[in-house]
Amino acid sequence: MTRFITRKELTNKKLSQVSTTERILLEGEQKILENGRLLEQQVPEGEIWLYHPSICGEGEELSLIQLLLDERYAEGYINLPMQAMEQCGYLNERLPEKRVYELLLRIAEHYAVIGKPLKGNRETADDKTSNIRESYKADCYIVGKYSQLLQQSGYFEEVVEVLLQEAQQSGDTEKALVYLEDMVGKKEIFRRIEAGTAPILIYYGVTYCYNVMNVMLGQLAESLKKKGIPVICYDEQKEDAAGLSRYVGQRFRAIVGMQTYLMSVYMKETGRFLHDEIEGPKFNIVLDHPLWLNMQLRHTPRDYYVLVHDENYRNFIKKYYSGVKGTYLFPPAGIRQQEEVYYEKRKYGISFIGTYRDYRNKCQVIHHCGRSVRFLANRFLLYMRRETELTAEAAFQKALDYYGIELPDEQFLEWLYQMGEVIQCVMYYYREKVVETLINAGIHVDIWGESWQKSKLAHHRNLTIHRDADSKESLAVLRDSKVSLNVMAWHKGGFTERMANSMLAGAVVLTDITSYSGEGFCPGKHCVMFSLNQLEQLPGLAERLLQEENWRKQIAKQGFEYAGTYHTWEKRAEKLLALIEELA
């Protein structure tokens, strides 16, 4: 099957909707009337045909230099297999003009282009909209890219002379000449445009947390592919850092990882980070408090960016990690399930998916610290437990103030890192306390996580402990749940993938308070929030959700619509691409 794609439809997103087994017929840079029955012609597998009125001989092979020197060939129709498009790269949407021309040249680098005569008339110049300034810039880029071929063929001087004449007539000669020099010299601006057809390199392979991160990165990769972006996935568990040497010297549209250590690999023999030798912006998606990635964030290559789901974490990184070039809010998205979402006949009332950790073990660690450390740790723990709206760093600063201790930023960061046991202690305490509050009030909770068998709550009559659930099984659980309980890992302004997945499954999210307000997120409308400081109110909220079906269904539907509009991986792919283009 051959699909016809017009100039107006010609985008990478449109091209990515075509199956790899299909062919496409592209309309060229300028409309040619009376194109005949081109879609009905049978093109041999693997061949690329170019139809144009100026072609006389049947089956004439057009060389790369021939196509390069006469851009009018790009006005014709191109019939090619999608496999060729994927191999050569899609349209370079960073080019302001002549995208089909530049694409045709890249195709001709790898495939024989066979010319076919075409009866028809080109539109007049008045019918074709073209920006002269942008057309000049596109020509400069193409000449820069193929400068070696032009020099070898003896045409370089002649082609550059034409561009020099256009620069003289541009109205801003100096600026036009500088642009031409940058393109021919393959300066940074040239390399950024060239990266417009480069793939995105994604690091995956981290298998802890029930493989959640791999699933999320897989969703992001598939969403990028659907938008016409080539993606290379690198398994850091199988290959470690050694296999990255094959990418040294290459340029990528972006390099993306999720709490990956690979970007911090340092080469002692060169005195540089490995990723200083791999071109392209590096994005590390951080799901935990940045403190837990302290060493990674302190030792960074150039062009290193961090994507977080909590505005507090964004501010924390800005203040304490100067090596990070930029930090952006980028909450993890959820997976939209294929089946229709029903809000009735759900098997579980309140479900909770997560592991159990005993906070008492952390208390023992704190107890065995030295006297001065123990006093500070206990004061820190006290503030976190009593003033649950505080971030970890704010609570720690309050503990320092209590003892009159002043620390420079670097030392504050070091001390806070050493107090990690305190942060984990209070996180685990409230996770257990929330569940205990519900079941002691007579509300049944279904938990997925075998580690809860070790808790003191394990044999409570209102608690059912199920086996561990992987990502796919978790989605099925959420589809069968009326309410999805969420206890933040002290993300005071966060939005997590568990929240997004719950909403997209039609379950009401019942979560402790977060200040996240992105895209109009609103408690009471898209979810129900409770305060860790007022857990006595939690059973009433839970009971009302279970008993008042209309209220529950209203919030579930509003949450579903909100997450479906703003928190899918398709939306995250769009946001990532917009960010990449902004930085470029």
| Straight-line N-to-C gap | 37 Å
Percent of residues in helices comes to: 40-55%
Q: Give, in spatial order, the strands making up the sheet with the most strands.
A: 1-2-5-3-6-4
Number of domains: 3
Summarize this structure briefly.
The chain has 584 residues and is α/β, with parallel strands linked by helices. It is built from 23 helices and 20 strands.
Entry keywords:
584 residues; alpha/beta; Rossmann fold; 3 domains; 6-stranded mixed beta sheet; 6-stranded parallel beta sheet; 20 strands; 42% helix; elongated
What would you say this structure looks like, in words?
The structure is a single chain. By secondary structure, the protein is of the alpha/beta class. The chain folds into 3 domains: 1-130, no CATH class; 198-333 and 572-583, Rossmann fold (3-Layer(aba) Sandwich), CATH 3.40.50; 348-357 and 414-567, Glycogen Phosphorylase B (Rossmann fold, 3-Layer(aba) Sandwich). The strands form 4 sheets. It has a 6-stranded mixed beta sheet with strand order 1-2-5-3-6-4. A 6-stranded parallel beta sheet has the order 8-7-9-12-13-14, with helices on both faces. Strands 17-16-15-18-19-20 form a 6-stranded parallel beta sheet, with helices on both faces. β10 (266-267) and β11 form a beta hairpin. The longest helix has 21 residues, at 420-440. The chain is elongated and about 85 Å long. It starts with a strand and ends with a helix.
